[in-house]
Amino acid sequence: MDGNPWATAIFNSLSISFPRGEAFFIDSVRSFREGAPDGLSGDIRAFIAQEVNHSREHVAFNRMVGDAGYDVAPLDKDVEDALAVTRGRPPIVNLAATIALEHFTAMFAHQLLKDPAFLKGADPEQAALWRWHAVEEIEHKAVAYDTFLHATRDFGAWKRWKLRAIMMLVATQRFVHFRYRGALLLLAQDGITGWRAHAGLLRELLVRPGIARRILPHWIGYFRPGFHPWKLDDRYLIENGEADAAA
Question: 171-176 long-range CB contacts below 8 Å, 24 or more apart?
C-alpha cells in the first residue's frame, strides 16, 4: 500500500479473514437453497461460485503475506475461534450474521470502487484483486438478504427486524474487534506498537481516507425497517470496475 504500514495491515487483516469467512457465508446461504424460488435459487448458485473464487484468490494473497515474512497464524486462529461459536446455532441465526457481514463487504466495496484514494499507490496486481472482489461483492450484495427474506417469510415484521438488528450489532462488535486486533498484530511484526500503532490505524480508518467514517451512514441505514441492499443502487460502480479490469 505505497509503503504505508497501517493501510497495509488493514488490508492484510481483512484478507486473512476472507477464506474462512466466505466458507461460512456459503454454508449459511446454502442451508436455505432448497425450496427457494427459481430466480433466487439461481442467484444462490452464482453467489456460491463467486465466493469460492474469492476464497481461492485470497488464499493466494494470504500466502504472499506469509511469504513476505508475516506470521499470519494468530490472525487465522482468531477467525477460526470467532466462527467456532456459530457451530450448533440455528441456521437462521447464522444467516442473519451472514447478511450483516455481507453488508459490511458491500459497504467496503462501494468505497473502494468509488474513491481511488483507497488503493492509491498499491501494487497494480493486488489493487486489481481488490477491485475485482469489490465488483462481485456489489453484484451479489442482496443475495444473502433475499435468502433471509425468503427464509423468514413466516416471521412477523418485528421478529424479522429484531433478529437482523441484533445480529448486526453482534457481528459489528466481533468484526471490528478481530480485524483491528489483526492489524495490530501485523504492525507489531513491523516494530510498530503502542500509541503509534493505534494512532496510525485510527487515522486511516477515521480521517484519511477514513473508510470507517464513510461507511457509518450506510451502517446506520441497515437498521431502517424497510432496508434492502439495492435501495442504494450502485451498479454504476460495477460498470466502472469492469471497465478498469478490461483496460
Answer: 171/97, 171/100, 171/101, 171/104, 172/100, 172/104, 172/219, 174/82, 175/101, 175/104
- Taking the C-alpha atoms of residue 239 and residue 245, their distance in angstroms, rounded to an integer, is 10
| Helix (H) or strand (E) segment spanning residue 98 | helix 91-114
The set of cell numbers assigned to 179 is 480485524
Domain spans in the chain, listed from the N-terminal domain onward: 5-246
Determine contact, residues 229/103, Cβ cutoff 8 Å.
yes
Candidates 3.30.1340, 1.20.1260, 1.20.58, 3.30.60; correct CATH number of 5-246?
Answer: 1.20.1260
φ and ψ of 167, to 5 deg: -70, -30
In angstroms, the CA 221 to CA 214 distance is 13
What's the pLDDT tens digit per position in 173-193?
999 999 999 999 999 999 999
pLDDT of 245 reads 62
Are 55 and 22 in contact by the 8 Å Cβ rule? The answer is yes
